[in-house]
Amino acid sequence: MQHLADIPRWCEDVMDSASPARFARRSLLRAAVLGRADATRFPAITTVDDDAGTAQRSLLYTVTGRILDVSPHIVVLLTDRGEQRFALSASAVAWRGGPVSPAALRPGDHAILRRSLPGGPVVDRIWAEVGRATGTIIERDGPASLFVDEGPAKGRRIVMIPPAASGRIQVRFPRLEPGYLIDVIGLKRDGFLQALIPATAQPPYRAGHQPAAPMVSGHIPDPVSGTAVWHEPGEEPDNLLGLAYPALDPETSCEHGTFGPPSFSGDLYAVDPHATGPGCVRLPYLSVGSLLRLRNDCTERTRLLPVTSCGATARLFCDRCVTCGTSRRGRLADLTMAAFVELGGALEVGCFNATMMIGG
Amino acid sequence: MFTALREVQIPLLAVMLLGGCAAKAWRTLRSRSAAAGMDATGLVPLHLRHPVLVMLFMAEALLGLGLIGTAGRLGDAAPHLGATIVRTATALFFLVAVGALNELRQRRPDAGCGCFGELSDTPIGLRTIARSGVLCASAVATIGLPPLRMPSSSTEAEMWLAVLAFELALIAFLSPELGDVLVRLGYSEPCELRRLPVGRTMSALRASSPWRRYASQVSTATPADVWREGCWRFVVYPGIVSGRPVDIVFAVYLQARRPAIRVAVLDAATDEILGLAGAHESAIL
């Protein structure tokens, strides 16, 4: 074991690492040593719309930025490329806590736009200030305020449920109590999320007590089917095309939780997703930089996506997506918002039925 | 022979009851939730399920211990009354179980009986109901039996063992849990799911011939990167070949003994592959 001391203890998070370039080279090095035909000569992890033959790697449909101006026909967005203008299609729909006319969006809103055609100048969907809280309720203050633990990677946040949305959320989340799971979509507010839509049905078990995955004989089937969801960028760039993977290699990844002794009563309900088993779908151990081919079974759109962070919280949810038919149980991938929209997902729906091919 | 058949039932019933009780307790403790073992209580209203589960658990524990406690001289002390009460209660318990399982099977065909905790997740079938019926008959057979004693001869002991073996085989045949147990005993996780410390990978690598071949070209003691994809772990060392900075990439198959190891040497600046070692047959991720 003396060699272990030689290994630096890296954090397998593409945003936290001091050298994200090493993640980008992994697919290339893997292909070189295993002699695979899928060797790629350009970085797997990219956050910009570059032109270097990155049809598989750049954002084709999605644009993210801050709204500078909006009119019934034009939206002006401040993106990482500067100010950009997009025409709104006649059928363009916007979401800002609910379906609204694009003209109702406000300058300063953080927005995600979906183009009608790949790379085209016309957009047909806009989501503004959309946020999501996924994790374990660790404290409840009155009927409307929850403190939610989103796992070691994302931390904790306050979720407020307005009276108008309470009934809608409680139909699918009947147990808004500490120790139970929550997954809601809403509007990002200053310091909290205003929950408006349930993103799934609440699992009947307490957080961390998900049913065991069936045993696998031989090798894990490839492709594997299940649910794909999305997460807020957090410290990631808004336009990062990638996914948080639920089964990163525990030996070299983020599977070293930050759970210390409880400092307040809510800590007793916090669950370290790394310590609760593999979840109800068995996925092979991968690392940041590994490539996956993910298909949205509802839109039949497929993209090659790199693993960009740890998505262990997804293991806690043994749920199904019913966007188009009923998916298999279990979450395969927690996509960045840009990747989710890129694959044709609707952010307010929260999930799509997905098929994942390991190794691209 | 008939007496031997009756005498065997008492330890067998006690083991079945205490085993079921322990399996339920284990499931509840593991999941830290009583709700986990509530399949068998699906017939009663939601607010009664927890008390019913506790009653079921207590009944199994008390009957199992009672059967053992009243089997010998202790039972003899109160002229068979205690023993008769416990054995009759056991027979009633299994009789009620037959009815409850039959009802549950019709109302919730997807639910397991939960009789042996997480091993009993298979939907209730006729075999499960028949098992309760057999155990009910076994309990009835023990009513009025005198206190148990050790076999007086080897022939009697053999008779005991033969009867016990037959009945165990019958119960095994009627237990869908047995298949699950056998699968778990013989289960070996696929390499994609197996946890293997990085230290073992490094040890295997440094004991291999590819390492000895390339060690002189490695320029640092510490790898530049280590990561895993499925059944392979990759280790990258910076190195120098003919004065050119290179990356030496080792792929180590994740198995405990004599793992396959492949090597590629790439120009660090251009990513051009300068050398390969190891078979390049189709690799399973």
Question: How does the SSE layout of this entry go?
Answer:
The complex is a heterodimer of chains A (about 350) and B (about 280).
Chain A: H1 21-34, E1 62-70, E2 74-79, E3 82-95, E4 99-100, E5 110-115, E6 122-128, E7 130-141, E8 145-149, E9 156-160, H2 163-172, E10 181-189, E11 192-198, E12 224-231, E13 243-245, E14 291-296, E15 301-310, E16 331-336, H3 337-342, E17 351-358
Parallel strand pairs in A: 3-6, 9-11, 12-16, 13-15
Antiparallel strand pairs in A: 1-2, 1-5, 2-3, 3-4, 5-6, 7-8, 7-10, 8-9, 10-11, 12-17, 13-16, 14-15, 14-17
Chain B: H1 2-31, H2 46-69, H3 73-77, H4 81-107, H5 126-142, H6 154-173, H7 177-185, H8 198-206, H9 209-214, E1 225-229, E2 232-241, E3 244-253, E4 261-267, E5 273-277
Antiparallel strand pairs in B: 1-2, 2-3, 3-4, 4-5
What can you tell me about this protein's structure?
The complex is a heterodimer of chains A (360) and B (285). By secondary structure, chain A is mostly beta strands. Chain A has helices spanning 21-34, 163-172, 337-342; strands at 62-70, 74-79, 82-95, 99-100, 110-115, 122-128, 130-141, 145-149, 156-160, 181-189, 192-198, 224-231, 243-245, 291-296, 301-310, 331-336, 351-358. Among the domains of chain A are: 62-128, OB fold (Dihydrolipoamide Acetyltransferase, E2P); 131-198, Beta Barrel (OB fold (Dihydrolipoamide Acetyltransferase, E2P)), CATH 2.40.50.140. Chain A has 3 helices and 17 strands. In chain A, the strands form 3 sheets. In chain A, strands 12-16-13-15-14-17 form a 6-stranded mixed barrel. Chain A is globular, with a radius of gyration of 20 Å. With 285 residues, chain B is of the alpha+beta class. Chain B folds into 2 domains: 2-185, no CATH class; 192-277, no CATH class. Helices cover 52% and strands 13% of the residues of chain B. In chain B, helix 1 packs across helix 2 (46-69) and helix 1 crosses helix 6 (154-173). The longest helix of chain B is centred in the N-terminal third of the chain and has 30 residues, at 2-31. Chains A and B meet through helix 1 of A and helix 8, strand 1, strand 2, strand 3 and strand 4 of B.
